[in-house]
Design a protein that fits this description.
- The structure holds two protein chains of two kinds.
- By secondary structure, chain A is of the alpha/beta class.
- Chain A has one domain: Rossmann fold (3-Layer(aba) Sandwich).
- Helix content of chain A is 38%, strand content 20%.
- In chain A, helix 6 links the parallel strand 7 and strand 8.
- In chain A, helix 3 packs across helix 4.
- The relative contact order of chain A is 0.15.
- Chain B is of the alpha/beta class.
- Chain B folds into two domains: 231 residues, Rossmann fold, CATH 3.40.50; 38 residues, no CATH class.
- In chain B, 39% of the residues lie in helices and 21% in strands.
- Chain B is built from eleven helices and ten strands.
- In chain B, helix 3 crosses helix 4 and helix 4 packs across helix 5.
- Chains A and B meet through helix 6, helix 10 and helix 11 of A and helix 6, helix 10 and helix 11 of B.
Chain lengths: 281, 289
Amino acid sequence: MATEIEIKNVSFRYESEGVTDPPPVLDGVSLTIKPGEFVAVLGHNGSGKSTLAKHLNGILLPSEGEVLAGGLDTRKEENLLTIRQHVGMVFQNPDNQIVATVVEEDVAFGPENLGIPPAEIRDRVKAALEAVDMTAYREHAPHQLSGGQKQRVAIAGVLAMRPDVIVLDEPTAMLDPQGRAEVIETVKKLCREEGLTAVLITHYMNEAAEADRCVVMNDGRVVLDGTPREVFREVELLEKMGLEVPQATKLAHELRKRGIELGDVINVEECVAALREQLER
Amino acid sequence: MYDLELRNLRYEYGQKTPFHKVAIRDVNLRFEEGEMIGIIGHTGSGKSTLVQHLNGLLKPTEGEVLLGGVNIWENAKRIKEVRSRVGLVFQYPEYQLFEETVFRDIAFGPKNMGMEGETLERAVHTALDFVGLSPELLEKSPFELSGGQKRRVAIAGVIAMSPQVLILDEPTAGLDPRGRDEILARIQDYHKRTGATVLIVSHSMEDVARFAGRVLVMNHSRVELFDTVPNIFKRAERLCEIGLAVPQVTRVFLELQKAGIPVNPGVYTVEDAVREICRIREGGDAGAQ
């Protein structure tokens, strides 16, 4: 299965009583997310990035424009069940997403609701826990897990529904550095090995550096869209929008101003390699 | 005097159950009045357990907590007074707002301390000002506010008690860079204007390097290091070993050092890194601080 997501000229306003013409949270956004892509959507709080994420499986519906998931319009109620089986979501707070008292029962919750036969549920749970590397914890109680582990269980719960797109809305915001790294590694692996499409909403630029493509949102619009290398080049623009490039990128940028050229560096490894070349000469 | 001292502190929980754990052991520390301290350590290292001892939320299994030279448990009836002198802001404090209006939420702590009337009114307004929120919000429901505003209301609720020691457990968790800078600037401002001792628990070495005078590193229930920021970063390799996320430039410089390039590995800001690279290119002396 390959689900392409097309966002066509989408605007969105939160309607509230007594407010006429509220300001748009999304303002004419157009994007196509290709099957198998790992896309990071960046932006500061209030930039519209989470609102955009909630449009991808019809949790929110566009005020104007349309969102097509696998060709299905999210505004048509009869499409929603199918769309949500293909486009799964993981949220910020791991504690709000876990419903059962045993890890494997939690992962089975989604497929059970889809009416999947028990034998197949067992296979799906097993595969999902393997994919997020949590098999060893299948009989544990979720409250005994670390934040990163809980988030991986939440991802497994989505995987057990066999989606082809997984949307992660700031999945690492509440985690410690180790938990953050675990979740990002898991997402990368799912894209590379299982061929899933991943849309990662984040304000951590070093996480976006791991993606194939970076989309930067500001004031409800797409401001930048390209590979991390292309996007990270815009150091000044990103800082103006309240984002921070990784220190390695910033260092290369500052050295360039002083006539030392490291190239477009996006992570520690590249920075070290470029500096060695400069300093060992 | 509001210096804090910990003597031979030990905390155990779940005694006589399979979950028995020693969360803190052999802790001997002294925080001077008016210091700005960063507390860092990975999840489970004991840092949150430690700060909960400082205002008597947890009672040590062994050892003492001294506030201004007096053991806070000497007279258990006075522990409430300790809690107003040592204010603690929990992780994700915005989940703990519960009152009908912002005013009543901020007023809850000082009211319990016996403040009322105009004094209470003034305390609430001053606290609101410290966290940079407009008085127009006072009559709103806290649940109408944005996440960042809610967090500031929660911090104001502790500041309204004018604590002489302010402790914040990960006050910037989940915020974007702008929100993080804003909160840290407000806390620094409180520190400067009141002379209070401030302790901030954080996962981010980069943040800690920016605000703290001294840094306490916790590891496996013990104090691993307690020193000034530059001295802590001189031990960057050790910080990596115990699983802390050191700044990217620190990792870059550790790698360069391993490759035999004579750099000072204690670099933790981009500015220092630029200076150090330029110095080496020009053939200066290595390792100078």
